[in-house]
Amino acid sequence: MQINKLPNQKNHCASTLMFLASSFSLHGRACPAVGHSFTTGILGCLKALSTAAVSGGNQGRTSNDDYFATIHHISNIVRRDIYMERTLNKMCISNIVNSELVYRVLRSCCRSGIESFRFFNWARTHHPNYDPTTLEFEELLKTLARTSHWETMWKVAHQMKVQNLHISPSVVSFIIEHYGKHGLINQAVELFNRLKNFNCPQTTEIYNSLLFALCEVKNFQGAYALIRRMLRKGAVPDKKTYAILVNGWCSAGKMREAQEFLEEMSRKGYNPPVRGRDLLIDGLLNAGYVESAKGLVRKMTKEGFVPDVATFNSLAEAICKSGEIDFCVDLFRDVCRLGLCPDVETYKIMITSASKVGRIDDAFQFLHRSIEDGIRPFPSLYAPILKALCRKGLFDDALSFFSDMKLKGHPPNRPVYTMLIKMCARGGRFVEAANYLVEMTELNLLPMSRNFDMVCDGLKNCGKHDLAKRMEQLEISLQGV
């Protein structure tokens, strides 16, 4: 970041530091007291910013750490300080207030609507050199919509119009969707109809947002009318268009209407980017109708059709969460025979689910099949099998498998080592656990203190005092004591 040197910079820096030295005590009621170390850290960060402005000639460069620490401090003031404007004025930060800083603070305060609006007005009125861009205006609009400050949001939108700044379709879509989430469908329709006043085109994205709002309030007749208008105006439906309406109908238990809609759109030549049955399955899963989704998949497989891999992954995950692992394993084999090409996410779901219920042979089959498909095993694929083997007390098999994966798969990460050390300790294999602690340190993976404590206590209890002492020395060396 570049900071311009200002006149009377020394006085400016001195006043900034004097204010910060007392800011936490002056505003303790609004800003909770923090420790001396944090106060010192903030002082150092702003001192670095000020020093850069003084010593860097016309332009000085500050470190990212100092810059983002300052943004964090300002954001805390915006969120928590009752007398925000007075506190910000005393900080004397005019030399660093620019579009980037304002945008970052607004993003950081995205859950504080009126406070963000006050900060934005303070930045505009107290810093004549600051000229807000569309980016800050739109971020503030989203924050105000998110926090349901609709009247203030429209004031900001009017300010944008006065300054001849256009609102992007993505922000309009965001606002319409939040109107729908709060049941304010009339306001959503009004905004949709007034888009010409903001020089914003009615894109497919905006049609989708209004469609979502209509489905949120269960106004399916209006949603269907909007689809017909969308086609008349020449807007092309995308996958989200179909998914929103199908999800809405399925959540209301209107599966027949969803099927009829997909068939009608197909007759008109507007085939969805994914197959209609996949959309129906996703809709049923999103609405919580797992049994209906299972029945539809059974019907598809009997007719020789296969869901796409993303739909199958969603279905498999939902079925496994309900505990029906046997059904999921059988379904996986059926769809693979019909031509489904599993991806990494598919194998991750199947291996994890089979391992959790102790079906280790099935988990190994899934892993070997993934290797045959050209996937190099990574920790989240082989860790569930390791854990399942240890739970069954098959430590020799688990340790041999782990050694094999270190050679053929991606290197194990910290969670895998932590899990394996814990499982070895529970099974009384403290020497192996100690060896894995050493391996972790060799790979620059810092073990947790409780792992050292668990292993050292176990080694002492089984008479391995020398090895326990070496583990304690290793822990001390890692801590730099």
Description:
This protein has 481 residues and is mainly alpha-helical. It folds into four domains: 96 residues, no CATH class; 104 residues, Serine Threonine Protein Phosphatase 5, Tetratricopeptide repeat; 70 residues, Serine Threonine Protein Phosphatase 5, Tetratricopeptide repeat (Alpha Horseshoe); 69 residues, no CATH class. The protein is 72% helix and 1% strand. It has a two-stranded antiparallel ribbon with strand order 1-2. Helix 3 packs across helix 5, helix 5 runs parallel beside helix 7 and helix 7 packs parallel to helix 9. The longest helix is centred in the first third of the chain and has 20 residues. The radius of gyration is 30 Å and the shape is flat. The N terminus is likely disordered.
Structural descriptors:
Serine Threonine Protein Phosphatase 5, Tetratricopeptide repeat, single chain, mainly alpha, 26 helices, disordered N terminus, 4 domains, 481 residues
Estimated structural class: mainly alpha
Element string (H = helix, E = strand): EHHEHHHHHHHHHHHHHHHHHHHHHHHH
Shape: flat
Strand content: under 5%
Termini separation: 38 Å
